[in-house]
Amino acid sequence: MDLTVLLAETTPMPEPATGEALVAARARLDEAAVAASYRLRAAHVAKIRRRRRLLVTTAAAAVTLLVMPVLGRGPGAVPSAAAAEVMLAAAQAAGDQGGDWADAAYWHTTMELDYPTTAGMAPYRQELWLAHHGDGISMSEDPESPTGPDGEPLYHDAGPSTFIAGGTVDWDGLYALPTDPIALESVLRTGSRTDNHWDKDTQLWVAVTDLLRFSPASSALRRALWQIAATIPGVDLIGHTTDALGRPGVAIERDMTDEGLHRTRLVLDPDTGQVLEELSYEPDGRVGYRMTVIDQGPATTAPASDPPYCGPGSEPHRTC
Amino acid sequence: MSAERDAESRGDFEVLAAARVQPELLGVIFERHAVAVHRFVAWRVGGEAAEDLLGEVFVAAVEARLRVRPHESGSALPWLYGIARNVVRAYLRRREPVPGWPADDHCDWAAVDARVDAVGRRAELRAAMVALTDDEREVLLLVAWDGLSPAEAARVLGITPEASRARLRRARVRAQRVLDDEPSLTEGEGPWI
């Protein structure tokens, strides 16, 4: 007997699903989806203790409840609901990572930088070791950076690590920051500058996103930073995208051109709350700057810094 | 429901990506694939049980949506079948084995027995199925009875397409060898006695 014929003759032909069965299954799915939506928001809602504004929207199959914290802003200033939802999900994901690097020696970031509108400039790699104690180390494959005798990139002293968080703090100061979003926002706003023309929300956005991108912030601090970011107005959800390395992510954007900055996009990994990529746009819409995080995490060692090299025949520390 | 309507023109994996932060968009995936998922489950557990398990598959999909990665076919069906397979196995795990049929939890072999007996092919099919390993049998039936390609079967089973094709080749050779060795299989005869 031929196997193909046997299998064809015995192929099952079950009765199709009844209408009632499909309706019942769909109802179970919808119920589970509503519960999942609540979970995306529920983790942070309990922590917000200040004055709130409730926005209630209804859909044909479900009711979603969105709680938007309003922290000292003028009436009508509310972040895009969809972008806020993404950032709140990032907060939960970041908190779930459970990382704490208070005792790490270094925070190592490998990134690719690109200035597409700069003629003759190709993307290049840059590495940074932020030091917990002492000086950090940096290395750039930027064609403008000095290289060694064989054209190899040089490792340079990068100075002590400092972070802007309501003033300048070091690594231990970063870990002393509150991880409650209300208290943390109060600290971050304390350092608001009055000598530039950025409004206070833009200053807060810059402070928050800088810490999310490059600092050894703990998972608890990252969660609070995303929770604060979710309350900042003017952030739009662009949607799902892939970064320059092909990794899937969600893009959010804030246009700060009115304040002399750029329209800036962040691509984040919704599963971890990590920032994968940052892009800035020229007024004509082209990407003027791209920073893609290739890898980031704690390190126990960093390369030694190279002595300065000033061309063939030079002697470090003597000829330059 | 407007978000769902907007998503209706998008491919499965674009919808699933959006569903990470808008889980209600899984409704689009349900409307596209629930009938196929029901069929996948129904021949394995019977129609009555399938009507209950269909909801369980999509409830499990709400959680699994956070980990899904695109399949080359662009269809979410292999991913859903993978979830359905786990739901079926959990349902069948406590069943007693059916005499003469494989002692696996891939399907209700008692239901298969009744069906193939009706077309007079019980002996041949039983011989062919018992000759195979669990892995070989599963990929053979995913291709032959669920109509999947070897690559889609690989996605359901969580193995590489190469491993899927290798198992399928072995399954076909071994099953055919049993059928060739016993050309006059009838009730009461066969390698299981």
Which labels suit this protein?
heterodimer; A: 320 residues; alpha+beta; nine-stranded antiparallel beta sheet; 7 helices; globular; B: 193 residues; 10 helices
What does this 3D model show about the protein?
With 320 residues, chain A is of the alpha+beta class. Helices cover 29% and strands 28% of the residues of chain A. Chain A has 7 helices and 13 strands. Chain A has a 9-stranded antiparallel β-sheet, with helices on one face. In chain A, strands 1-2 form a two-stranded antiparallel sheet. A two-stranded antiparallel sheet of chain A has the order 7-8. In chain A, strand 7 and strand 8 (168-169) form a beta hairpin. Chain A is globular and about 85 Å long. The relative contact order of chain A is 0.15. With 193 residues, chain B is mainly alpha-helical. Chain B has 10 helices and no strands. The longest helix of chain B is centred in the C-terminal third of the chain and has 21 residues, at 161-181. Chain B is globular and about 60 Å long. The chains are: A alpha+beta (320), B mainly alpha (193). At the A-B interface, helix 1, helix 2 and helix 3 of A face helix 1, helix 2, helix 3, helix 4 and helix 6 of B.
What structural category arises from helix and sheet content of chain B?
A: mainly alpha
Most strands sheet of chain B: none
First-last Cα distance of chain A: 87 Å
Which range does the strand content of chain B fall in? under 5%
What characteristic shape of chain B results from the CA principal axes? globular
Strand order of the largest sheet of chain A: 6-5-4-3-13-12-11-10-9
Low-confidence parts of chain A, pLDDT < 50 over ≥5 residues? Answer: 42-79
The low-confidence runs of chain B, each spanning 5 or more residues with pLDDT under 50, are: 186-193
State the end-to-end distance of chain B.
59 Å
What's the average pLDDT of chain B? Answer: 85
This entry's quaternary arrangement is heterodimer
Compute the average pLDDT of chain A: 80
Largest sheet of chain A: 9 strands, antiparallel
- The percent range for helix content of chain A is 25-40%
